Amino acid sequence: MKTIDLRSDTVTLPTDSMRQAIYNAELGDDVFSEDPTTNRLEKMAAERMGKEAAIMVASGTMGNLVCLLTHCSRGDEVILGNQSHSFLYEAGGMSALGGIHPHTVVNQPDGTMRPEDIEAAIRSDNVHFPRSRLICLENTHNYCNGTPLTVEYTKKVAALARKRGLKVHLDGARIFNAAVALGVDVKELTGPVDSVSFCLSKGLAAPVGSVICGSREFIAEARRNRKILGGGMRQCGIIAAAGIAALEQMVERLTEDHANARRLAEGIACTQDLSLEPETVKTNIIYFEITSEKISAEMLVKKLAAKGIKILNLGPNRLRAVTHYGINSDDIDLTLKALKKITEEP
Ligand code: TLP
Question: Are residues 209 and 294 in the same domain?
């Protein structure tokens, strides 16, 4: 029985062409900047994002942390969404390792923070206050239904930051999902920000790795901070080789994941005891609720697992499903059939 794993796009396995690229990768010591494959990936990533330079890191969490450490000193403050991944799910790394103070602003359902709320969060120069240094955006916004932030919104926040002397970091873990969903060149979404970190190992299906892009000066400093975190990875062309294949071959097909997510959402919206607004699903992430007392999220996850289908329990009534390279339209049909069967059980 095939497992249909909808817990996350992080579960994607490398393609055959990635495995070939890994096997054939030309290698060197990347701490000496002598790994030709890593150098190639970094050059390619910088070009794609419209930035001067790039550096590969082990994960999205490390990418965000290295960027925050590079933008901020101890005691500085970061303005970020109260539903952002960096605030909720990165183990408080910015405080634990950087002494950086998070200042949260409410995320609207579409993943934005209202510019007036951001502006109100910026501190004046006063000895009592931490120094406001950075604004973080997340695109797509994972916990706000995987919604893509638009070019206009990104520009507006960047202009506000510039006016007030702050920098902008973009957690672009799924920035290619945003670009594909909005039908824009990814550069338009990354151009206005000072740094972006994007993941190779989510929808793009590479096994490991993220890339940070920014100015030459920023990336030189990020290289130092990556080293501090133990992230100098030596012959990491092994990872970069798959990343190059991911950038070359896996971006356009994200539209399939978005179409599958939309179909799953539409099916769930018509399933008894489940609730979701399909028009909120714009990329590959869907959240839905159970509306009946009869069944909990935990029970539903267990019953689906017994049928070989995995989704994420966010409890007590909330669930998440994510489409990706390992999921096709038949898998969506099977999942909807299973959900219907389980919710119709007496
Ligand atoms: N998100 C994972 C889990 O951590 C929840 C997922 O399954 O969605 N930024 C965003 C917006 C993310 O969604 C994630 C991972 C990260 C950063 C961190 O990336 P990794 O897992 O590579 O450290």
Answer: no
